[in-house]
Amino acid sequence: MRRDDDLSTWLSETPAERRLPINAKGGLSTSCAGLVQQFLNDNFSRKLSLAEMAAVCELSPYHFARGFSKTFGVSPHQYVLTLRLDLAEKLLADSRMSITDIADLSGFSSQSHLTTMMKKYRNATPQQVRARQVRSRGSE
């Protein structure tokens, strides 16, 4: 899989793709939340700035970050990180791909960065996730 391939097929089942939240007081409008969610789902694997995300809603980065957190319950950075980790876990099921390639496709700066983030937020290294997926497929 190359970076320019359609990643939407990988995202169709990701837990991070949640229904749009109800319009929270002080949060983003429903239309803005939908636009930014679609933007992030389409672009999470590349480097994104807060200003670029805020521009989708025509807000300042400060107001966007506050509204995003109230609407989605996590910071924009954490939301993007979750999307990246979800994709990396799906790609790890394909043992033909190297962890370095998976890190690159998922938007991490390096294999080390992927490993650090996965260990911190998923309590397992990419190799452990891959081994667990191989075991679960073997027992089916």
Query: C-alpha Rg, in Å?
Result: 16 Å
Strand content: under 5%
Shape: elongated
Structural domain tally: 2
- Mean pLDDT comes to 84
Distance N to C terminus: 26 Å
Which residues sit in consecutive blocks of at least 5 with pLDDT less than 50? 1-11, 13-17
- Classify the helix fraction into a percent range: 55-70%
Structural class: mainly alpha
Which oligomeric state applies?
single chain
Explain how this protein is built.
The chain has 140 residues and is mainly α. It folds into two domains: 8-75, no CATH class; 81-138, Arc Repressor Mutant, subunit A, CATH 1.10.10.60. The protein contains eight helices and no strands. The protein has helices at residues 8-11, 30-43, 50-57, 61-72, 76-92, 99-106, 111-122, 126-138. Helix 2 crosses helix 3 (50-57), helix 3 (50-57) crosses helix 4 (61-72) and helix 5 runs antiparallel to helix 6 (99-106). The longest helix has 17 residues, at 76-92. It is elongated and about 45 Å long. The two termini are 26 Å apart.
